[in-house]
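To assess whether the prediction recovers the assembly geometry, we first specified each molecular entity separately, as shown.
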Amino acid sequence: MKLSFKNKVAFITGASRGIGQACAIALAEAGAHCVLSARTQGGLIQTDNMIRQKGGKATLFPFDLQPKNPFDTTIDNIGPSIAQQFHRLDIFIHAAFYYTPLTPVDQITDQDWSKNISINLTSCMKLVRTLSPLLCATPNSQALFLQGITKPGAFWGSVTSVQAAIQNLINCWKEEIKDISTVHVQTITPPPTKTLLRQSFFPAEDKDKLNSPEKTAKIILAFLLKKQNP
Ligand SMILES: NC(=O)c1ccc[n+]([C@@H]2O[C@H](COP(=O)([O-])OP(=O)(O)OC[C@H]3O[C@@H](n4cnc5c(N)ncnc54)[C@H](OP(=O)(O)O)[C@@H]3O)[C@@H](O)[C@H]2O)c1
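The predicted structure of the complete assembly is given in tokenized form:
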């Protein structure tokens, strides 16, 4: 299938490595202008270089999903900044995820718990809040959230709790905007993919059996395209 996202504007979190980076490169190659975000400037520059090599265009938007202080409004400014520069947002892919150690529930530390909630859950709410007006104003826009394991199991309390909460939040937002916009709100669980996150959760598994991020990105883009032209 020939993938075309010509003249689309896409905002991708987690674009410094892994699946987010591969999605950004594939989207840019298919014609989208990609706004790239993550903390690591070096990773974003690498993504930008790979996009340029393929003839694509990107804008870098480095930031930490963990607020620096209670008055940090960096995330709140993202929607207005994209609106000011591009006047539209066709695709939002939320691929950023902060790794919290797999631990028995009775040993989760306050620090790990609060970082998990702040970076993974609160920031997701803030991203939806800041991007929703622009996504709703852009015809047939798409918001895609990459989700992992939500089924509870030993040692997965921290990770699965936050992912289940994210899923609820997204479902509620989807209901709220379904009659007043044409935004396609979706979640997708990517197949096992060779990334730093995967390596942290499953250090002993056979990496040769995992998808490359590029292969997973192709699946994700095909999914987006199917929703664009059902
Ligand atoms: N890999 C798999 O097999 C798999 C399977 C199912 C679901 N998923 C889901 O797919 C998504 C992407 O995972 P991945 O495997 O590609 O992980 P990854 O390679 O570890 O990438 C995670 C991304 O999140 C960003 N990030 C982490 N903390 C951040 C923070 N505080 N502020 C801003 N950005 C931050 C990282 O960038 P910086 O460190 O530069 O900030 C990085 O770009 C996740 O939601 C994951 O749950 C992955």
